[in-house]
Amino acid sequence: DQQVKQNSPSLSVQEGRISILNCDYTNSMFDYFLWYKKYPAEGPTFLISISSIKDKNEDGRFTVFLNKSAKHLSLHIVPSQPGDSAVYFCAAGFGNTGKLIFGQGTTLQVKP
Amino acid sequence: NAGVTQTPKFQVLKTGQSMTLQCAQDMNHEYMSWYRQDPGMGLRLIHYSVGAGITDQGEVPNGYNVSRSTTEDFPLRLLSAAPSQTSVYFCASSSSRDTLRTQYFGPGTRLLVL
C-alpha cells in the first residue's frame, strides 16, 4: 500500500514557465512533508518542507502548497530553469522517529 | 563538515556473499536511516535508528541487519546477498533539534548482486 504517491513519472516544461509537481498521500497522521531533488549519481538533497499546520511555504522560486482535506501537496517552481532538471521526490513523516515515506519520484525536464 | 559519507561507492557481489555498507555522519545527528532506491519505487526505508543503541525496522527490512554503537556510524549488513538486493543504497541523518526532520543524504552505494 503506497502511502505517498506521485502519479506523474515525468514532466517537461519550457524555461521561464511554471513547473507544478504533485503528490498525494493517504495517511492523515503525517504531520510534515518535504520535497527532495535528486541529480543522477548523487544523493537526494533537501529542497523545501511544510508542517501540517500550514498550507503554504515559500522559499525563493519554490513554493509548496498543502491541501489537507484533499491529502494533496504540490511544488511550484517559478520561473523554471534548466538547472532544475532532476528527479523530485515528495516525502511525508510523523512523530519523533525521523522516518520518512517517499513517493516514487517525478523526473522534471526544463527545456532551454 | 563532511556531512554524510558512504563507502564503498560501488560493489559487485555474488549471490550468498555477505558485506557491510558503511555510513558515517559528523553532524551529531541522532536519527540515521537506510533507504534503497529502485526504478519506479522511489526510496524505501530499510532500517532506522533514533540514537546509539536503538534501531528499528522500516518498510523493507528483510535480508538486512543494522546496529548503532556510536552516534556517528550506522552500518548496514547484508548477511547473504540475493539478486533482489541489487539497488542503490542511501544513508541519511537528521536532528531532533529540527522539528521537520530534514534528512541529509549520503552520495549512495550502488550494489550489484550476480
Structural features, described:
The complex is a heterodimer of chains A (112) and B (114). Chain A is mainly β. Chain A has no helices and 11 strands. In chain A, the strands form 2 sheets. In chain A, strands 2, 4, 5, 9, 10 and 11 form a 6-stranded mixed β-sheet that branches. The mean pLDDT of chain A is 94. Chain B is mostly beta strands and 114 residues long. Chain B contains no helices and 11 strands. In chain B, strands 2, 4, 5, 6, 9, 10 and 11 form a 7-stranded mixed β-sheet that branches. In chain B, strands 1-3-8-7 form a 4-stranded antiparallel β-sheet, with no helix packed on it. The A-B interface holds A 4, 6, 9, 32, 34, 36, 41-46, 49, 51, 89, 91, 93, 96-105 and B 4, 30-33, 35, 40-45, 48, 50, 56, 58-59, 90, 92, 94, 96, 99-108.
Largest β-sheet summary of chain B: 7 strands, mixed
Percentage of residues in strands of chain A: over 45%
Radius of gyration of chain B over alpha carbons? 13 Å
Low-confidence stretches of chain A: none
Radius of gyration of chain A, CA atoms, in whole angstroms: 13 Å
Helix tally of chain A equals: 0
How would you summarize the topology of this molecule?
The complex is a heterodimer of chains A (112) and B (114).
Chain A: E1 4-5, E2 10-14, E3 19-25, E4 32-38, E5 45-51, E6 56-59, E7 62-67, E8 72-77, E9 86-93, E10 101-102, E11 106-111
Chain B: E1 4-7, E2 10-13, E3 19-25, E4 31-38, E5 42-51, E6 54-57, E7 64-66, E8 76-78, E9 87-94, E10 104-105, E11 109-113
Parallel strand pairs in B: 2-11
Antiparallel strand pairs in B: 1-3, 3-8, 4-5, 4-9, 5-6, 7-8, 9-10, 9-11
Brief account:
Chain A has 112 residues and is mainly β. Chain A contains no helices and 11 strands. Helices cover 0% and strands 51% of the residues of chain B.
Tags for this model:
heterodimer, A: about 110 residues, mainly beta, six-stranded mixed beta sheet, five-stranded antiparallel beta sheet, 11 strands, globular, B: about 110 residues, four-stranded antiparallel beta sheet
